Prior knowledge:
By secondary structure, the chain is mainly α. The protein contains 4 helices and 4 strands, in the order E-E-H-H-H-E-E-H. The chain has one domain.
Amino acid sequence: MTETNNSTSPTTGTSPPGGRRSICRSASVAADIDDKQHAMLRDYAWNYFSMHADQRLKTFNFYVTLSTLIAGAFVAILKEDKVSRWLSVLPFLLTFLTFVFWKFELRNKQLVRNGEAALRYLDGLLPVENTGGVPHVLRILHRDDYFSGQVDGVPRKRGWTYSRCFNAVFLVLGITSFVLGCVCLFH
């Protein structure tokens, strides 16, 4: 690592001579990277983000499919027989699986945010200027934060994000299945 003050300013978008960018924004320690290294780091960060975002959606889809099968089995058995204590196994199983998949969601969300943070950082190194306080179109994640009302990951507006939607589904199915399990158990 070398000491240098040659860094790309995320706000002004000025780039030092030779197409080099600074990885570290500290004036005392900075590691310069060239455009090829920047592209390599961008690909690495994008692949990390993409893989975990895809995993997050696939995990949720699997949860919805599994929940549908358990709920369908519950309804089918309920049509054939009267309510019995043994029937409570299915709703309690769904409650347990809801908790497990909710914990998977929390971990997947953390992994996706790690990728987003790396991409935000690399976007900040781009030699482009903001227009009228609005992030440049090439700073995709900064621009998304700006228009969705988030600053430093903290929402200013209450929008429906993936996390809120997923948590709403987990909450409704978790509580409903627990109540159904109790009704079957104590009926």
